[in-house]
Design a protein that fits this description.
Order of helices and strands: HHHHHHHHHHHEEHH
CATH architecture of one domain: Alpha Horseshoe
Structural class: mainly alpha
CATH superfamily of one domain: Ankyrin repeat-containing domain
Strand content: under 5%
Largest sheet: 2 strands, antiparallel
InterPro entries: Ankyrin_rpt (IPR002110), Ankyrin_rpt-contain_sf (IPR036770)
Pfam families: Ank, Ank_2
Keywords: ANK repeat, Repeat
Number of helices: 13
Number of strands: 2
Distance between the termini: 48 Å
Shape: elongated
Radius of gyration: 21 Å
CATH class of one domain: Mainly Alpha
Strand order of the largest sheet: 1-2
Length: about 240
């Protein structure tokens, strides 16, 4: 079941490429290797995500498919999920340990890819990546662009991406914004209300106490290993 042809493809590669669920299940039942690569270095999981064959992703993962293997262009399955704007597959891969800021041969993270594929009113895949800590303003691609700067000229940043920038700025976390992004923020009046809501919530968090620390300090410093409130925070949760 693991024989390769001249393209380096196994029967499992072909079953997934043709979206044949029955054959895929039979091959997995007979322990077809889920991490063999074709000549493009793509695994069956790469193909399942690329062709949006969602039904086989869980069986592949259950059979030991590795989520962070890269293909010849150093794309991981998460890059393909971002390319397809798939919220569900992005979340599933991240839950299984996909590296959110991994870069391909062009220096693009999945967030670079997702932003380039989206229009202003879209963005669920971007939201998932941001929820899992995708870096917005620090990692650059081969053109020297960060995800904040990364989109075609005719494409605006999704609202939720701008909202994430606003939340970060309101919380006084370091974020380097170029003039185009600042212009985007000023262009959308509805975001002013969102910003005011964020500031109001932060004021509340700074007043609310857990032990001797306010809620804002607890959440903003929780990942710092030197922060003494870790145990209190865990108890509060």
């Amino acid at each position: 079941v693991n024989n390769k042809d001249n393209r380096g493809s196994t029967p499992l590669h072909y079953a997934i490429s043709s979206k044949n669920l029955e054959v895929t299940e039979i091959l997995l039942l007979h322990r077809s290797s889920v991490n063999l690569r074709d000549k493009c270095y793509r695994t069956p999981l790469h193909l399942a995500v690329l062709y949006e064959f969602d039904a086989v992703v869980d069986p592949l993962l259950a059979s030991g498919a590795k989520v962070n293997l890269s293909d010849k262009k150093r794309n991981t399955p998460l890059h393909y999920a971002a390319q397809n704007k798939s919220e569900s597959l992005s979340r599933k891969l991240l839950e299984r340990g996909a590296i959110v800021d991994i870069q391909n041969s062009k220096g693009q993270t999945p967030l670079h890819v997702a932003i380039n594929r989206l229009r202003f009113t879209e963005g669920n895949c971007v939201r998932v990546l941001l929820d899992y800590g995708a870096t917005m303003d620090d990692i650059k691609d081969y053109k020297g662009k960060t995800p904040v700067e990364y989109r075609e000229e005719s494409v605006d940043l999704p609202v939720l991406f701008l909202e994430t920038i606003i939340k970060t700025c309101c919380a006084n976390l370091e974020l380097n914004l170029n003039s185009k992004v600042v212009s985007d923020l000023k262009s959308y009046g509805e975001l002013v209300h969102f910003q005011n809501t964020c500031l109001t919530e932060l004021k509340y968090m700074k007043k609310k106490k857990i032990g001797s620390n306010n809620l804002y300090d607890v959440f903003s410093q929780y990942r710092d290993p030197k922060f003494s409130m870790k145990e209190t925070m865990e108890e509060a949760i």
